[in-house]
């Protein structure tokens, strides 16, 4: 299969780009670096596609029971609260008590320089 080949159908569930258009986002950096979408693949298509994110992997399924306390979780992206840390760096943290919702309080990793290639 070549990249971009149509193998089936699905339904667009979420689009950050459409959300920004609907909320009339004015910040050009937010618009330029925000392109995320969730597509619900048809049942006949699901076995033909790879649901993971390049480089980071996952999600590869749906967890309906939550995660045990202390499980490592990762977030992706940046905010002004990260004090200039690399904007596209993954940020690890660990979960609190098992839950289907996990709060991320990851702080910047100051042990790596901005151009470290991570």
Model description:
This protein has two domains: 7-49, no CATH class; 63-110, no CATH class. It is α+β, with helices and mostly antiparallel strands and 118 residues long. The model is unreliable at 106-118 (pLDDT under 50). It contains three helices and four strands, in the order βααβαββ. 0% of the residues are buried.
Features:
2 domains, two-stranded antiparallel sheet, 118 residues, disordered C terminus
Secondary-structure map with pairings?
Layout: E1 10-15, H1 16-22, H2 28-32, E2 37-41, H3 43-46, E3 72-76, E4 90-94
Antiparallel strand pairs: 1-2, 3-4
| Structural class computed from helices and strand pairing | alpha+beta
- Please list the strands of the largest sheet in the order they lie side by side: 1-2
Amino- and carboxy-terminal Cα gap: 29 Å
Note the beta-strand portion: 15-25%
Count of DSSP-assigned helices: 3
H and E order: EHHEHEE
Count of the separate structural domains: 2
Task: Summarize model confidence as the mean pLDDT.
Answer: 69
Q: How much is the radius of gyration in Å?
A: 17 Å
Question: What's the short story on this structure?
Answer:
This protein has about 120 residues and is of the alpha+beta class.
């Amino acid at each position: 299969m070549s990249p971009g080949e149509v193998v089936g159908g699905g339904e667009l569930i979420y689009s950050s780009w459409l959300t920004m258009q609907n909320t009339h986002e004015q910040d050009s950096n937010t618009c330029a670096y925000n392109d995320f979408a969730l597509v619900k693949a048809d049942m006949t298509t699901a076995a033909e596609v790879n649901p993971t994110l390049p480089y980071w992997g996952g999600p590869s399924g749906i967890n309906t029971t939550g995660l045990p306390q202390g499980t490592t979780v990762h977030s992706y992206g940046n905010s002004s609260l990260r004090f200039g840390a690399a904007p596209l760096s993954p940020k690890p943290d660990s979960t609190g008590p098992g839950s289907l919702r996990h709060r991320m309080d990851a702080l910047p990793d100051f042990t790596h320089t901005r151009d470290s290639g991570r």
